[in-house]
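note to self: dont lose this again. the chain is below, predicted strucutre after it. 738 aa total, dont forget to put it in the shared folder this time
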Amino acid sequence: MKVSWLLVLLAPASLCAQTQPEPLTLPSVEVVRTSILPGLGTALQDVPANVQLMREEDLRRQKSSSLADYLERNATSVNVNAAQGNPFQPDVSFRGFTASPLLGLPQGLSVFQDGVRVNEPFGDVVNWDLIPQSAVAGMQLLPGSQPGFGLNTLGGALSVQTKSGLTHPGGSVEAQAGSFGRRTLTLEQGGSEGDWNYFFTANGFQDRGWAEHNPSRVQQLFGKIGYAAAQTTVDVTVTLADNTLEGTQTLPQSFSDNFRQAYTFPDRNSNRLGFLAVKASQFIDDRFFLDGNVYLRRYRNQNTSSNVNGDYDGVADQVQATNDQSLIEQNSYGAGLQLSYLGDIAGKKQQLVVGASVDAGAARFTQQAQDAAFSASRDTTGTGAYSLLTDADADNRYYGLYAFDTVTLDERWALTLSGRYNRANISINDRTGSAPGLNGDHEFARFNPALGINFNPTSGLTAYASYNEGMRAPTPIELTCANPLAPCKLPNNFLSDPALKMVVAKTVELGMRGKQGRSFTWSAALYRTQLQNDIQFISSLGAGSNTGYFRNVGAALRQGLELAVSDKWGALRTSARYAYVEASYQSSFSINSPTNSSADAAGNIQIRPGDMVPGIPRQTLKLRLDYDIASQGSVGLGLNSSAGQYARGNENNQGANGSAAGFSVVNLDAHWQLAKDVEAFANIANLFDRRYANFATLGRNVFTGPNNSFNALHPRNEEFFGFGAPRGIWVGLRYHWL
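---
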């Protein structure tokens, strides 16, 4: 086998661009990353999972406001909610598992940018605003508890690959403006000279928000310098971001006549990122391929939030509200090394991969609070000085050793064997000296196996079956808030850290996919993921409160069905994606939810096996039509339909009015070539201006006085909603050159 043939495996897939350079004359092969580092990739026909591959040209055509928005519109089994009230801070759910920027929300998806895990070490959160969309060359969404992707891969892994000067030569400048005062400007340029190549992009986004008090300012910069010789490649990338995002919180149902208003404010997040990564690969000979990476991330989050004082009684406690400020300063770094072998072992063609990785992080968390009062417009005014509540350090060390082997049994059968040993060490230290129970060292370790079989009777048909296991270690945020006798306030008022158990996921998946002719493709998958030692935030004051503690609540289940089909008839391209997701608790436990109509006298509700997990719609349907108008342009139409979902606080599914209704939203985009190098485009979100909520929680409305003024002595139990954005229209121009 020659090196040139190995390069075929690295060619950019038509649906999933890779970052390794290769001669453009070689044929392309659809390959999938089955571990953190790309390696040689695995041919799609040999991957025993319903992997979804997404192209950069579709991101560019649809002009989604963020990666999360694009995933919601296009990926099977993905839904997004507006719990934080800002388009760049969504909770993204896939198969009932979440990747969210919200501290304290159980995370079940791992996310990677060019092989670097971007789940932040402090809380495993994913800040979607820190991934520059204009730098994305392609994405793959690999489902299941894939051990090759390490910690937190309970339900799946999202791998983002960025552009290079080889894959995206030339440049462009793009400007867009429209509804909500939105203005965007994007610049990119790529090229190569000899063995060297480069790419950079800068992106600026600013709007006042569709609701009151939820503006966004996003500034992102991405740069890559690459070296590509016959057998060696090196990429050095830098990602910078400086973003300010404001949210509006959920609104009680009685406020829904004006769904643009804020419940309380301000609520502001400022995110800053400096991210340096170096990736290198080397062909040792025609059988062995070595690749590795090192990285350094510097992340800073400053949060300001307004909160109702749940202890207000008007007599002994006359403090209406608190202003909370928190600061996370985090350094994370890591490295990975992977060796791939492509050849025969015991007379069978095999692709064997062995590797190791280490990810480390050091974070300092501080929190302070200030007594405050509400104005007539429900913003908070401080009435006292800030007092320090928390000052703590958290150190993470994550280690992994893994092996992956794809064995070609014959022309039709392929066997996949893999496993990964994970070890997580977490240390927490109280800097104030007032919370000695907080100090502690925690260690979690486990070997996670995987097994898959693929049957390819023809070149256009694949059937597969797989079993895999994954784990998630409790995060510092959970470990420091696990004492029911000392509930804390999120983002966190650290007090003590009783031990929690790691979460273990075991997934079985059966599926088929096929291709007929040049354009017709289809897929179908059944899956079942069983969770052990699932972690739940137990609120001390009900679902509307951020005061409580974390605990292991036993078993949980995610299972479902995925169907997808796409085709092209002349100038018309079509696709349809349907998902059924059943997320349920499988153990009995009780939580405090006094605003639930079925709660007992103490305000508690009992969860029983089979009760559905809130916030996850059972069914979603996504349809997409694209029509090319000769060579002049195109028009795209997308429909997203979602079934209803239970509200948080209604975990027992028994509360009256404890759910959000289903909805359907239509989006439209169009492109027109004005000249050879000039393109005009338009994008309409929520074309028919539907009023809908994609999130709900039970809570206590304390603004029941005249004109919705503060009246905590006569609160009203209500359902609170996170509303989707109304119709928005944007137009823009793009000028590009080679």
